[in-house]
Each structure stands twice: as structure tokens, then as C-alpha cells.
Write a structure and sequence with these properties.
Helix content is about 55%, strand content about 0%. It is mainly alpha-helical. The chain has one domain. Helix 2 runs antiparallel to helix 3 (about 75-100) and helix 4 crosses helix 6.
């Protein structure tokens, strides 16, 4: 038996995987709100197409080979197909947006949005990734359970709803840019 107290025990350190893709990593565990906010209009258009595909196919199949279920039999199936389609469409949009955060897809727009958002927070003195009421340990657990989760989202939808400081990127770049902008603002006002 170990004689260490709970305070002396160390939490396991699991290093983040550093992707070696064509595009830079923005965040390996983006918060749900950021993913939805950064989604591109074409993602939403494609997601709407994915959502509409199920009900459209169901109507087509009913037209080509009628089921003859009667007046009340087809409507519940269409509602279920619509719900499954909406869920699939949203997961499609979420996945495409997350893959841009991971650097798996072209992400120039998201890099600029991320830099602007984080530099503005740094200039105001706010925490970059928000505040949390959870302990550091629980934030780490949440991070380890949800980083890169969107790569498997079609099988197990798992979202990050926790604000934590573990995102797999060096945040010093935001503070350097904030210092440069603040210096430029001071020089501009004094001139």
C-alpha cells in the first residue's frame, strides 16, 4: 500500500497528439458554441441538403413503390425520417467545422476568426477559453474524453461543453499579438 496522501498523488499526463496535416491546428478540443459559431454558410447549406435527403428519398420511394399503409401510417414515418435527417445534417455541419479546427480541412477563415477572438479577449484581460466552476482535474478529464471527438462523431456524438485551458496550441501567440496591437494603439493615440 502506498503511504501517499491524496494531495501528493500526481495526475497522469497524457500528451496531446500533434497533427501533421497540411493545415495548422487551431484547437483540438473546441467548445460546442465555438464550433457552431465558426461553421461556414456552405457547411449549413450542405447540412440542409443532408437533412433533406432522407425525407426526399422516403417520398420518392413511396411514389415509386407505394406502401399502401393508409392515411395515418406514412406521416409518423416521415416525422421520424425528418428527425433523423435533421440530426444527421447537424452532425455533418459540426463534423466539418471541427475538422477545420483540427487542421484536417482548409481553415484560413477560422484561423483569422480565432486570432481575432482570442486577441480581443487577451486585450480585455479575460481568460482565453472562458471560466469554469469545475476543478482542474475534472477539466482535464473532460478534455481527455472529448479531444478529437468529432473524428468519430457519426458513431458516437460527443461534444465539449466544458471551458478548460487544454486545447493543444501555444496560446502565447495571442498574447504577443495583443501586445503588438495595444502598442500600436498607444502609439497612434500619442501621435
Amino acid at each position: 500500500m502506498s503511504s501517499q496522501t491524496q494531495d501528493q498523488q500526481q495526475t497522469p499526463y497524457i500528451p496531446d497528439k500533434i497533427p501533421s496535416g497540411e493545415y495548422p491546428l487551431i484547437d483540438n478540443d473546441p467548445h460546442f458554441k465555438r464550433v457552431v459559431r465558426y461553421a461556414r454558410p456552405e457547411d449549413w447549406a450542405l447540412g440542409a441538403g443532408v437533412a433533406a435527403a432522407g425525407p426526399a428519398l422516403m417520398l420518392y420511394w413511396e411514389k415509386m413503390s407505394p406502401s399502401f399503409v393508409g392515411k395515418g401510417g406514412f406521416a409518423p414515418i416521415m416525422r421520424l425520417t425528418g428527425a433523423v435527417g435533421l440530426t444527421g445534417g447537424f452532425l455533418f455541419v459540426y463534423s466539418r467545422s471541427c475538422h477545420r479546427f483540427y487542421g484536417a480541412r482548409e481553415n484560413r477563415r477560422e484561423i483569422e476568426m480565432d486570432m481575432r477572438e482570442m486577441v480581443d479577449k487577451a486585450k480585455r484581460g479575460e481568460p482565453l477559453y472562458g471560466t469554469s466552476t469545475m476543478t482542474d482535474y475534472m477539466q482535464g478529464v473532460a478534455h481527455r474524453n472529448s479531444r478529437y471527438a468529432a473524428t468519430f462523431i457519426g458513431t458516437l456524438p460527443w461534444f465539449n461543453f466544458v471551458n478548460h485551458p487544454y486545447h493543444g496550441v501555444d496560446t502565447a501567440k495571442y498574447f504577443r499579438q495583443a501586445e503588438l496591437e495595444l502598442e500600436q494603439e498607444r502609439n497612434g493615440k500619442s501621435s
